[in-house]
Design a protein that fits this description.
The complex is a heterodimer of chains A (878) and B (458).
Chain A lengths: L4 H13 L7 E6 L7 H16 L3 E6 L5 H10 L4 H21 L6 H15 L2 H4 L2 H25 L5 E2 L16 H6 L9 H10 L2 E5 L2 E3 L5 E3 L4 H12 L4 E6 L16 E3 L1 E3 H10 L9 H7 L3 E5 L8 E4 L11 E14 L9 H11 L4 E6 L3 E6 L3 H5 L2 H9 L4 E14 L11 H8 L3 E6 L5 E7 H4 L2 H11 L11 E4 H5 L9 H4 L1 H10 L3 E4 L1 H14 L5 E5 L6 H9 L3 E4 L2 H11 L5 E3 L6 H9 L3 E4 L2 H11 L3 E7 L21 E2 L3 H10 L3 E6 L11 H16 L4 E3 L17 H14 L4 E4 L3 H4 L3 E13 L2 E6 L8 H5 L5 E3 L9 E6 L8 E8 L7 E4 L20 E4 L1
Parallel strand pairs in A: 1-2, 1-7, 2-4, 3-4, 7-10, 9-11, 19-35, 20-21, 20-28, 21-22, 22-23, 23-24, 24-25, 24-26, 26-27, 27-28, 30-32
Antiparallel strand pairs in A: 5-6, 8-18, 10-11, 12-14, 12-15, 13-14, 15-17, 16-17, 19-29, 29-30, 29-34, 31-34, 32-33
Helix pairs in contact in A: 3-4, 3-7, 4-5, 5-7, 10-12, 22-23, 25-26, 26-27, 28-29
Chain B lengths: L4 H4 L8 E10 L4 E8 L5 E6 L11 H15 L1 H4 L6 E4 L6 H14 L1 H6 L33 E4 L4 H12 L4 E6 L3 H10 L2 E8 L2 H8 L9 H17 L2 E4 L10 E3 L2 E3 L7 H15 L4 E4 L6 H8 L23 H4 L5 H10 L5 H8 L10 H8 L13 H12 L8 H10 L11 H4 L9 H4 L7
Parallel strand pairs in B: 1-4, 5-6, 5-8, 6-7, 8-11
Antiparallel strand pairs in B: 1-2, 2-3, 3-7, 9-10
Helix pairs in contact in B: 2-9, 2-10, 4-10, 6-11, 16-17
Classes of the chains: A alpha/beta (878), B alpha/beta (458).
């Protein structure tokens, strides 16, 4: 198993350095939630037993029961208030007594000793002043109690476990410039292989349990290791025992390539080197405290993160750098609440000591600088959102002092977006799409560390929300995040934790023979499956009950058979031109409701829509200003630009100032004035802000914003939340959570029952229903690239060239052969952009093979052109 | 004769009369039904639901009936405004002269902004004549009901009512946080108060929306007056002797003048309305029910300073009027950053809250965004009139902005720098002093047990 390769290597190194005496140690650390219930303790017992069965010696390091450390801290913080201390202590006592009962333990002696100690500390005269020694002793009680309960329970469960006092083995060191607070409550322990301990422990037992979070100092007093201290304790013990591995057991499988809360497709990082892990822990991942990495790195002991609930998941293993690893971005993270201090001085040029003066002021105010960037006349630094910065006047005092030597400006709130991965510099050329994304934002600072591990962009915080999922996606597409490297990237969070949606095999696999027959008649050839259209329409209507009226945006695919299928499912039709209206009227007569949403069209187009009896949408002042009489006495829909945009590519974003669609909100009052003047009634608000949206919150946000605007207009009866329901293109993308979309819209509807909700999906209904069949024309090899020419091109399907859209491509003729040739699939058009798929794996294509391009039901045939006069594709409906 | 839909919803602007048809209370469901109509048009029935309504003690029945009637008359303003017909017909019994006078004031001032926006002259139309003289009312006193000593504290999700919550807690006043409607945001704030909670539901007659869609008159209504009347009913029903709103001093100042009259967007939050409603309560409902505003002696700035002391609401409160009911996860879901309320609350808190904390609350720095210049100019009453919103006085905004020009961490921000260069030289510096604006003063109706908490002169 690849996960153990590096630990084996390390063991060999250690054997060379200092022969071990046979006993191989594993250190297992369990956090608060892992020690708070009996079933969790049973898991700990099982894990320890399994290690023992492999012949290992086991040291278990535990945190306090969930919430206990916070309560002990509350006693420390409220030390002067005896009543409050008593009340909190009673909660702690009750919690541990309950745990004792839950574990069905017999002898309460061990626990009672610590509870008595708590009583003594409450009565201790040091409490009045809250002295640091007293606080450290109070805080240490949580782990003392949890380890005592654990030792008793594990032994009672047949896993004989010996209790160790961790303070006997971890000795803190005094650091220069360390405050008294730091030396007692944020202590550090120097560690090295402890031969005596390694020799002694195996004579005492096989499985041991001890406390995280604490140590002793040279004077023999209890000290605390600070936040993340239990992980750090495990690392210290790993170093002392020269362990084979330190395993941090927690409630998540490991570190991910992004925060899974915002990026469900984030991939588990199976393997990281120490430096990368440190960087990721520092810039975002909460699973591991960055402090715990250094001790194991120095000792060369690998550290693994494992999920207590799913011991079978591989987890993350952190060890020394592997020399020949592919350079890859491993993770992307975002930290918000960053404050930038920009200092401007004309006198700075070659002025000796300016930076020293500046940094001295930061030091004086106790503020620690994170990022720094300098120019000839400017120094900009970043500050993290510490308690001190947010809740005290320190920033004001700092700026007052800085103003004495330079012009100072605070830029905030900002977010720092960091890419982490060894070999960052060699990947810069792959970042064009990433940089394009940042190009539309105000980037205040860019920092690339010279250790070649990270690249950080600081932008406005408001612009950063939702940016990380997008960048994560772009990194994969740009092949800067090499998720195909299975030695490094494990499964996605969704795959691990979400019940895996059984992805039905696509319809075209089952109907392959029919498709091959159609391909013999003609290629290129669009084929549509009406059953898929029906299923998608039913899924939307069935799931999203809050929407009262549905319209299908026919521009996605206006084939008459598809329109009939969709209209039969109760949809109205949304048209954008007189041509589309004529097309619909020709098929359906007046029997279908038309929503008409033209954009930058001539006056005559509105007249045509009105004449055809369509519901007309206006999205600009111009028509009312200049052609007001055309709309007089009528009802119209108003398309607004809600000023935030989403979507999978610049050209499919339809909101924001850089988009031509929608009335800007600050022109709304003028629009309503013109409407009143011409006796025009605004009865609907419309917003459609992008396509291919997979974030389920989007529609709720749009709708809530529309509702609050509509309420003030008064005449509005319907809110059209647009479409944009995303269809995942790649196998690793999670489908849109329609239930979450439905819940969000239902919430808005409950708050604003007076409005009807409308929606106008297009691509969602038809994308998966269509495929494009093409025939292989020629093959070419050129350098590393292998080209497969097909008779379809950008004139047939322009989405890859126009939007960099991804369409799955398979060799339909050889569907059962392994898809192992890496190829560029290209068309016959005289344009270098005529590429249907980059770096695709196909079953070895031969001239005449039928290639299937999936998800071509939307914006396929309707966007095809006569470019190069190659003619249009045939269309067939199954 | 069957009415066609078009007949059924005949344009209320052509109606002859607005009718107060009926009001009743279903004790089992705790539902008050308030019915109105234009001429013989459809009945417009608003419902107010008091959850877990207790059985009304016998000695409070008469008072509750009076409170319900008052609510019916007050809440009619939302419906009346759809057509503003010349005749106001109260069909639920005689209208005392003082009540007619009260209603006239409420409808006239409470709809002043509506009239301005729609270019209407209510003075010509509004007639709340007593239907018949019901023995006057001047000097009449309702009996005392010996109501339990505890306070109903309406909260709105904004900073003001949360300051009141903390003031009540600081003097150990038994209080219940009450809100009307379905706002997830207010519910989230309410939960953080640690007080007992009461959520009253209000369902506006759906026909009113239909009238609005068909082009009826629409605009601002004095919603605080309606909520106040609902809470008078609640106080009698559940047993509270005090209703403490959170309107501060500036709520009494006019927003602009139109047709020679003062228009105040927040008239129903003014001291004038407070006095009128108190008189109605004491004359007709209960002598021992106190209705007042806890923050009345304070300026907006003083309220902001107090709010700065409590950070537990930072992630949930919002005073923004645009994104109000739906609770989102980002600051931009609670603060649109574009409206006068966002501008004012940002500016008023800035002198009192650490800058990083303020920026965390709003998610952006409005004072470093040149696109917001006009919005802040309006607050400063610089080239613009004060916006039609519940915002502080111009001199408060000017004093706050001036204070920021003295602060190193603020003065380089685009709009603060612009104020310093462009606006400040035109202002009388003596009028920019901060401290006088923070001292409590002015008229108020605070009961003694609250006055001390605000250092207010009794």
């Amino acid at each position: 198993m690849s996960a153990f390769i590096c630990s084996v290597t390390e063991t060999i190194v250690n054997v060379n350095a200092a022969p071990a005496n046979g006993a191989q140690w594993v250190v297992l650390k369990f956090g608060g939630t892992s020690v708070s219930t009996r079933p969790r303790w049973d898991k700990i017992a099982a894990i320890a037993k399994a290690k023992r069965a492999q012949g290992k010696h086991v040291l278990i390091v535990v945190s306090a029961l969930s919430g206990t450390t916070d309560k002990l801290k509350a006693i420390c913080d409220g030390h002067a208030d005896a009543g409050k201390c008593r009340a909190v202590a009673d909660e702690i006592i009750a919690r541990h007594r309950a745990m004792f009962v839950e574990l069905e333990l017999k002898d309460a002696g061990g626990l009672d000793t610590w509870l008595a100690r708590l009583e003594r500390l409450l009565a201790d005269p040091r409490r009045t002043d809250g002295t640091l020694t007293w606080q450290a002793e109070v805080l240490a009680l949580g782990e003392m109690m949890s380890s005592t309960l654990g030792a008793a329970y594990l032994t009672a469960s047949g896993v004989a476990t010996r209790w160790l006092d961790s303070r006997e083995h971890l000795l803190s060191e005094a650091l220069p410039n360390q405050s008294a607070w730091g030396s007692y409550l944020s202590a550090q322990v120097p560690t090295a292989r402890d031969e005596a301990l390694i020799t002694k422990l195996p004579t005492l037992g096989e499985i041991f349990i001890t406390q995280g979070f604490m140590a002793r100092n040279a004077a023999g007093e209890t000290v605390i290791l600070g936040r993340g201290g239990s992980d750090t304790s495990a690392s210290y013990f790993g170093a002392l025992l020269d362990a084979e591995i330190v395993e941090i057991w927690t409630d998540v499988a490991g570190m991910f390539s992004a925060n899974p809360r915002s990026v469900p497709n984030a991939r588990l990082l199976s393997k990281l080197d120490y430096e990368e892990a440190q960087e990721i822990a520092t810039t975002g991942a909460k699973v591991l405290h960055p402090r715990c990495i250094n001790p194991v790195r120095e000792a060369g002991v690998p550290l693994a993160i494992k999920d207590t609930n799913y011991p079978e998941f591989a987890g993350t293993e952190i060890c020394a750098a592997v020399a020949d690893a592919l350079p890859s971005v491993k993770a992307i993270s975002s930290r918000s609440g960053i404050t930038l201090i920009s200092m401007e001085s004309i006198g700075m040029w070659q002025q000796v000591g300016f930076l020293a003066d500046v940094f001295e002021i930061f030091k004086r105010h106790g503020l620690s600088i994170d990022l720094v960037s300098t120019a000839e006349t400017n120094v900009t630094v970043s500050l993290d959102p510490t308690e001190n910065l947010v809740n005290t006047d320190v920033l004001s005092a700092l700026c007052t002092d800085l103003a004495g030597i330079c012009r100072v400006k605070v830029i905030a709130p900002c977010a720092a977006i960091t890419l982490v991965g060894r070999g960052m510099r060699s990947m810069l050329h792959k970042f064009s799409t990433i940089l394009a994304e940042f190009g539309s934002l105000r980037v205040h600072l860019i920092s690339q560390s010279s250790n070649n591990l990270n690249l950080t962009f600081v932008v406005d915080e408001s612009a950063a929300s939702d940016l990380v999922p997008q960048l994560h996606d772009l990194l994969i597409k740009a092949e800067a995040m090499r998720v195909e490297d299975s030695a490094v990237f494990g499964p996605s969070w969704v795959d691990l934790y979400k019940k895996k949606l059984v992805q039905d095999a696509p319809w075209w696999r089952a109907r392959r023979d029919e498709l091959l027959k159609l391909a013999r008649q003609a290629t290129p050839h669009y084929v549509y499956d009406l059953a898929t259209v029906r299923a998608q329409a039913q899924a939307l209507r069935g799931m999203i009950k809050a929407v009262d009226r549905w319209f299908y945006a026919i521009k996605a695919n206006s084939h008459p058979a598809i329109l009939r299928e969709i209209v039969a499912r109760g949809f109205g039709l949304e048209c954008v031109s007189p041509g589309e209206i004529a097309h619909v009227r020709e098929i359906f007569g007046d029997a279908v409701d038309i929503l008409y949403t033209p954009n930058f069209c001539p006056r005559a187009d509105y007249a045509a829509g009105i004449a055809a009896g369509a519901r007309v949408t206006v999205d600009n002042l111009h028509p009312l200003e200049h052609w007001g009489e055309l709309f007089a006495g009528r009802e119209i829909e108003l398309r607004l630009d809600l000023d935030f945009a989403r979507g999978h590519h610049d050209k499919v974003k339809t909101g924001g100032a850089a988009s031509k669609f929608g009335l800007s909100l600050n022109e709304l009052d003028e629009f309503l004035r013109l409407a009143r003047q011409h006796d025009v009634r605004v009865v609907g608000l419309h917003a459609h802000l992008g396509s291919g949206i997979l974030d389920a919150k989007h529609w709720k946000e749009v709708c809530a914003q529309q509702a609050s605007i509509a309420e003030k207009i008064g005449t509005v009866r319907s809110l059209n939340v647009g479409g944009g329901y995303g269809v995942p293109a790649r196998a690793d993308e999670a489908p849109l959570d329609l239930a979450a979309v439905a819940a969000g819209l239902a919430e808005v509807k409950a708050a604003y029952p007076q409005f009807e909700l409308w929606s106008e999906p297009g691509r969602f209904l038809v994308a998966d229903a269509g495929v494009l069949l093409a025939r292989v024309t020629q093959l070419k090899r050129k350098g590393e690239f292998r080209y497969v020419g097909v008779d379809a091109g950008m004139h047939t399907l322009i989405r890859p060239a126009l939007y960099e859209a991804y369409h799955e491509i398979v060799n339909l003729s050889r569907i059962d052969e392994p898809a192992d040739e890496l190829v560029q699939v290209v068309g016959p058009i005289c344009e270098s952009g005529d590429v249907l798929g980059n770096h695709r794996r196909l079953a070895a294509p031969q001239e005449g093979d039928v290639i299937l391009i999936a998800q071509a039901g939307a914006y396929g045939a309707v966007m095809s052109s006569d470019y190069n006069l190659r003619g249009r594709a045939t269309e067939t409906v199954l | 004769m069957t009415a066609t839909p078009a007949d059924k919803f005949a344009d209320p602007r052509n109606a002859q009369a607005f009718r107060f048809v009926a009001c009743d209370f279903d004790a089992a469901s705790g539902t008050a039904s308030l019915s109105y109509a234009f001429d013989d048009g459809p009945l417009l029935t608003e419902r107010v639901v008091f959850p877990d309504a207790p059985t009304l003690p016998h000695e409070r029945e008469a008072a509750f009936a009076q409170a319900l009637r008052l609510l019916h008359l007050v809440a009619g303003v939302s419906y009346y405004k759809a057509g503003i017909p010349a005749e106001l017909r109260v069909e639920t019994g005689a209208l005392a002269a003082d009540t007619a006078e009260f209603l006239h004031e409420l409808y006239f001032h409470g709809l002043a902004e509506f009239a301005y926006e729609n270019q209407l002259d209510l003075g010509e139309r509004l007639r709340f004549a007593p239907v018949q003289s019901a023995g006057g009312g001047i000097g009449k006193q309702a009996p005392a009901l010996d109501l339990p000593r505890r306070t109903l504290l309406p909260i709105g999700g904004g900073k003001d009512s949360l300051v009141s919550v903390e003031l009540c807690k600081s003097i150990n006043e038994p209080a219940t946080a009450v809100w009307i409607g379905d706002s997830a945001l207010i519910a989230a704030c309410a939960e953080r108060t640690g007080l007992s909670l009461l959520n009253i539901k209000r369902r506006i007659a759906p026909e009113l929306f239909e009238y609005n869609r068909q082009g009826a008159w629409n605009g601002h209504v004095p919603v605080t007056a309606i909520n106040s009347a609902i809470l008078v009913c609640a106080a009698i029903l559940y047993g509270y002797d005090a209703i403490a709103f959170s309107n501060e001093r500036s709520a009494s100042s006019a927003t602009l003048e139109y047709l020679g009259r003062q228009i105040n967007h927040q008239w129903s939050k003014s001291l004038a309305f407070e006095r009128l409603l108190r008189e109605q309560i004491h004359a007709h409902v209960a002598a021992d029910l106190d209705y007042f505003s806890l923050l009345r002696p304070w300026s907006e700035l003083a309220v902001a300073r107090e709010f700065a002391k409590h950070s537990q609401y930072d992630a949930v409160f919002s005073s923004c009027n645009r994104n109000f009911r739906i609770l989102g996860e980002h600051p931009s879901d609670r603060w649109c950053g574009q409206c006068p309320k966002c501008h004012f609350v940002f500016l008023a808190l800035a002198p009192f809250i650490a800058k990083p904390r303020l920026l965390r609350i709003f998610g952006r720095n409005l004072l470093d965004d040149t696109a917001q210049a006009n919005g802040f100019d309006a607050l400063l009453e610089y080239r613009e009139h004060k916006p039609f919103e519940c915002v502080g006085e111009g001199r408060e905004s000017r004093a706050a902005m001036h204070a920021l020009t003295q602060r190193a961490e603020w003065r380089e921000d685009a709009l603060v720098a612009r104020f310093a260069h462009e606006i400040l030289p035109q202002l009388d510096r003596a009028a920019l002093a901060f401290e006088p604006l923070l001292a409590p003063h002015g008229e108020h109706y605070l009961p003694a047990r609250f006055a001390a908490a605000l250092n207010a002169p009794l």
